[in-house]
């Protein structure tokens, strides 16, 4: 499951750096209280009140906006794709009937489509919002977010410059993301820390939660594992149900603390109530490392069952690519899906999967052409660098393999313990 692991790591961590020798960090006493299984409520008197006002021919604009926002919140809490689709339906109806405030509904629907990886449609909605003369800053923020997802980095930088405001939380977090893309991790952390302080001074728990989980990720990239762990705990102190923070702690246990059994225990508690497919895939990956084929197979089956739901659309293309290439050996299917992903979002990541699919199909020259043109020198993500190293090794370009291998050895925390041998064998 080597390439599934690469995808999981790509989602968890998106830049490489040297890892310190941290020893064991995570302690059960710190997080056990957050692991109690508790089914989250996906309704409330507030939600029921507004939802009850919606009828097939309803013109209750306020109802559609509020209900759409609540469905989005339920999706974040449960990972259930049906809530994201229900939010889409509510927001589409709001767009249809709004005479005032239509630009805001366009932007809300665009954010929904970003979550669904429907980036080109999100761009069209943002264009529609801007044509109405809605909030220029909100539109420019969205343009930055979308163009980063589409790999249009020159345009993204243009929109980032257009919202420059060092006292604005939204600008600072995007500036951090931009520096992460450029590979400047120290600057990335600096701006995320500033954003976190701003959220704290405003006592905005939602922004604090967002800041802490992102800072935890960035600290992990930098090899500051204890700082990463502490910030996941700070996030859980705000929201004890936060699945992402628990997943981050599970990764620390697996990759830093050499405690995969405890990592599985944490993830098992998460997936009792949070059912996003990638969590089951991560459990399968850790079980594979442990040699526990029963747990591995059980969680792979759960993943495959969930992603059969057409509501997911293109959200899990990259995960499925890893499985086609490594688990099921469906190379033609992988190549078709990789081409689709490049059409959806021509990023270095998408092109790396396309190159890797060509390599697995036996066309190493085409794979190297794609890596040279679209990936090499354009990304700092360890998982993509590993794919590039495999392609260059197959083509006998050993100077590049040696260079990439040096970077990958410094990224073992990001790549996980099961990747050490593969890196050494490059």
UniProtKB/TrEMBL annotation:
<dbReference type="InterPro" id="IPR019734">
    <property type="entry name" value="TPR_rpt"/>
</dbReference>
<protein>
    <submittedName>
        <fullName>Tetratricopeptide repeat-containing protein</fullName>
    </submittedName>
</protein>
<dbReference type="Pfam" id="PF12895">
    <property type="entry name" value="ANAPC3"/>
</dbReference>
<dbReference type="InterPro" id="IPR011990">
    <property type="entry name" value="TPR-like_helical_dom_sf"/>
</dbReference>
<dbReference type="Pfam" id="PF14559">
    <property type="entry name" value="TPR_19"/>
</dbReference>
């Amino acid at each position: 499951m080597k390439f599934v692991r690469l995808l999981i790591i790509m989602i968890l961590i998106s830049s490489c750096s040297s890892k310190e020798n941290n020893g064991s960090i995570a302690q059960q006493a710190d997080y056990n209280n957050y692991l109690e299984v508790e089914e989250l409520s996906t309704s409330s008197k507030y939600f029921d009140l507004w939802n009850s006002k919606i009828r097939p021919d309803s013109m209750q604009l306020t109802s559609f906006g509020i209900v759409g926002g609540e469905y989005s919140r339920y999706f974040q809490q449960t990972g259930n794709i049906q809530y994201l689709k229900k939010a889409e339906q509510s927001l589409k109806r709001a767009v249809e009937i709004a005479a005032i405030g239509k630009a805001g509904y366009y932007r809300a629907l665009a954010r929904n489509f970003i979550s669904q990886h429907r980036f080109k449609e999100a761009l069209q909605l943002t264009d529609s919002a801007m044509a109405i003369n809605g909030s220029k800053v909100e539109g420019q923020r969205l343009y930055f977010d979308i163009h980063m997802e589409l790999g249009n980095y020159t345009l993204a930088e243009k929109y980032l410059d257009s919202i420059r405001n060092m006292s604005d939380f939204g600008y600072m977090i995007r500036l951090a993301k931009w520096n992460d893309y450029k590979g400047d991790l120290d600057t990335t952390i600096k701006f995320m820390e500033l954003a976190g302080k701003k959220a704290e001074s405003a006592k905005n728990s939602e922004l604090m939660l967002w800041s802490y989980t992102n800072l935890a990720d960035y600290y992990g990239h930098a090899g500051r594992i204890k700082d990463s762990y502490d910030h996941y705990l700070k996030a859980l102190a705000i929201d004890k149900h936060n699945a992402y923070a628990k997943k981050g702690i599970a990764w620390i246990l697996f990759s830093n603390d050499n405690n995969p059994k405890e990592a599985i225990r944490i993830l098992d508690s998460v997936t009792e109530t949070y059912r996003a497919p990638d969590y089951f895939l991560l459990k399968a990956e850790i079980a594979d490392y442990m040699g526990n084929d029963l747990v591995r197979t059980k969680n792979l089956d759960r993943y495959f069952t969930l992603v059969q739901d057409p509501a997911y659309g293109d959200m899990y293309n990259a995960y499925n690519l890893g499985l086609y290439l490594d688990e099921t050996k469906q190379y033609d299917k992988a190549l078709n899906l990789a081409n689709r992903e490049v059409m959806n979002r021509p990023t270095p990541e998408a092109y790396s999967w396309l190159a890797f699919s060509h390599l697995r199909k036996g066309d190493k020259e085409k794979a190297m052409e794609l890596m040279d043109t679209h990936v090499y020198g354009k990304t700092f993500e360890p998982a993509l660098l590993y794919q590039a190293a495999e392609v260059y090794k197959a083509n006998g370009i050993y100077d590049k393999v040696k260079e990439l291998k040096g970077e990958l050895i410094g990224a073992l925390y990001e790549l996980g313990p099961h990747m050490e041998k593969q890196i050494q064998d490059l």
